[in-house]
């Protein structure tokens, strides 16, 4: 069936439903049940406090009654004072009883067992897209979590601000012109934040999601899909579509930061000195970049007495430097690059749980 390439209410609804189904899962159910259990304990503590308060007020009212009954009727002034006090205690007791009854009437109770809820949540997407749920059922489910949705015209996009019950919010961006389903667009947009094009293709193929032409996904098809729909990515060399906070930099950018050439960065990646992602030999190399990486490899780290130089380990183990570095990475040791005079040298800091390296 052809997909309309112009934004409509149905596409916005589809994106909101996809977000709802993504949020409602077994993990969120477990969190909700834990919260409900904590809330129940709090309600029990509050109920205990109310019971103690009602007992005190009932005792005070009964004490006022007994005082009134013991007074000499001839002493009208005292009798009137005690009767007034008795009435006040009764009024306070009645008001507290009404407040407690109103509060307990608003406490929700769960009608289903945990097992029943887990089964429904596990199959909710199937129920949603089948005849099992009417349109009214779907609306009521959405209202359980979503308070409101506000739309904003943003050029080639429609921004949807989803306000959840409880105050949290989520943002969706739906393109006005799109030769695809909104669900696929949102899925690729979300994956592109932390996955390369090849990883996205593998994920979509694993979920048996096909392209609009009914074909399986490849890295090139994902890239074309992203570019045609202006989807930003953490792993693209296109400046206008590059996400700045992906936690990865190109090998060229890493080389500039560490004052080495790009080939050195590629070797360090192969030896385990740097971690990263590379779909294939022809694809860009992306280096995982954190302040800790810069500290370890820019030459300014503080030496540790437990560190052992790679040069001495090469002599001890009878291996080349790249073999020692690969061995250190495979065994969980930490690799440092320290300045020694005018040169930079690699050092290995062993794990605390292991015996010294030499």
Q: Would you identify the regions where 5 or more consecutive residues have pLDDT less than 50?
A: 1-7
Bulk shape: elongated
The averaged pLDDT comes out at 85
Task: Report the total helices.
Answer: 14
Could you give a short account of the major beta sheet? 3 strands, antiparallel
Helices and strands, in N-to-C order? HHHHHHEEEHHHEHHEEHEHHEE
The strand order across the widest sheet is 1-2-3
- Indicate the radius of gyration in whole angstroms: 34 Å
Question: How far do the termini sit from each other?
Answer: 68 Å
Number of strands: 9
Describe the structure concisely.
The chain has 358 residues and is of the alpha+beta class. 53% of the residues lie in helices and 13% in strands. A hairpin with a 4-residue loop joins strand 2 (157-164) and strand 3 (169-175).
Describe this structure in words.
It is a single chain. The chain is of the alpha+beta class and 358 residues long. Helices cover 53% and strands 13% of the residues. The protein contains 14 helices and nine strands. It has helices at 9-23, 26-70, 76-105, 114-122, 124-128, 135-145, 182-191, 197-206, 219-228, 251-258, 262-271, 291-297, 310-317, 321-330; strands spanning 146-154, 157-164, 169-175, 248-250, 276-277, 286-288, 308-309, 334-340, 343-349. A three-stranded antiparallel beta sheet has the order 1-2-3. A three-stranded antiparallel beta sheet has the order 4-6-5. Helix 2 runs antiparallel to helix 3 (76-105), helix 10 (251-258) packs across helix 11 (262-271) and helix 13 crosses helix 14. The longest helix has 45 residues, at 26-70. Residues 1-7 have low confidence and may be disordered.
């Amino acid at each position: 069936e052809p997909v309309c390439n112009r934004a409509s209410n149905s596409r916005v609804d589809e994106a909101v439903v996809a977000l709802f189904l993504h949020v409602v899962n077994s993990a969120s159910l477990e969190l909700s049940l834990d919260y409900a259990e904590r809330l129940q304990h709090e309600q029990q503590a509050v109920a205990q406090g109310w019971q103690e308060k009602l007992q005190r007020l009932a005792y005070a009212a009964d004490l006022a009654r007994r005082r009134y009954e013991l007074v000499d009727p001839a002493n009208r002034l005292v009798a009137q004072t005690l009767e007034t006090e008795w009435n006040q205690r009764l009024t306070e007791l009645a008001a507290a009883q009404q407040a407690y009854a109103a509060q307990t009437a608003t406490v929700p109770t769960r009608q289903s067992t945990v097992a029943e809820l887990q089964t429904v949540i596990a199959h909710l997407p199937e129920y949603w897209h089948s005849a099992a749920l009417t349109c009214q059922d779907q609306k009521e489910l959405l209202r359980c979590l979503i308070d409101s949705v506000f739309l904003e015209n943003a050029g080639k996009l429609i921004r949807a601000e989803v306000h959840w019950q409880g105050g949290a919010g989520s943002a969706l961006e739906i393109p006005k012109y799109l030769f695809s389903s909104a669900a696929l667009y949102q899925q690729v947009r979300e994956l592109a934040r932390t996955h390369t094009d090849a990883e996205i293709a593998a994920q979509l193929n694993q979920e048996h999601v096909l392209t609009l032409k009914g074909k399986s996904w490849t890295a090139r098809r994902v890239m074309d899909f992203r570019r045609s729909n202006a989807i930003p990515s953490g792993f693209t060399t296109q400046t206008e579509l590059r996400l700045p906070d992906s936690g990865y930099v190109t090998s060229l950018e890493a080389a500039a930061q560490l004052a080495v050439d790009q080939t050195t960065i590629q070797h360090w990646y192969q030896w385990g000195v740097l971690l990263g992602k590379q779909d294939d030999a022809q694809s860009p190399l992306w280096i995982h970049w954190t302040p800790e990486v810069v500290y370890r490899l820019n030459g300014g780290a503080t030496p540790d007495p437990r560190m052992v130089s790679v040069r001495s380990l090469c002599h001890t183990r009878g291996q080349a430097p790249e073999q020692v570095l690969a061995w250190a990475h495979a065994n969980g040791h930490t690799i440092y690059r320290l300045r020694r005079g005018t040169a930079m040298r690699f050092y290995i800091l062993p794990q605390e749980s292991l015996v010294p390296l030499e």
